[in-house]
Write a structure and sequence with these properties.
5-stranded antiparallel sheet; 81 residues
Length: 81
């Protein structure tokens, strides 16, 4: 049986929290985000029974570079924008 959306979300969060320097951050109810140096880089949520993942990454390679984000919702990468 495939994992439920909540189980997938937990797997993603657990993996992210296993990375060095990460800590949980929950700014809003229903969001279990992950941060480094108190800067959120992974936004996690469940919306209408589907996993929602948002990722910020620095552009230009430096930590002070402005971030660009990616949002993914649902079960396939076709829903990415």
């Amino acid at each position: 049986m495939p994992p439920t959306a909540a189980a997938r979300l937990k797997q993603i969060r657990d993996f992210a929290l296993s990375l060095p320097g990460t800590q949980p951050k929950s700014p809003w109810p229903g969001h279990d985000d992950v941060a480094v140096n108190d800067k959120t880089f992974l936004y996690l949520g469940l919306h209408d029974g589907e996993v929602s993942v948002g990722v910020n990454r620095p552009s230009g390679g430096g930590p002070e570079s402005p971030g660009r984000g990616i949002v993914w919702r649902g079960q396939s990468a076709e829903n990415a924008r």
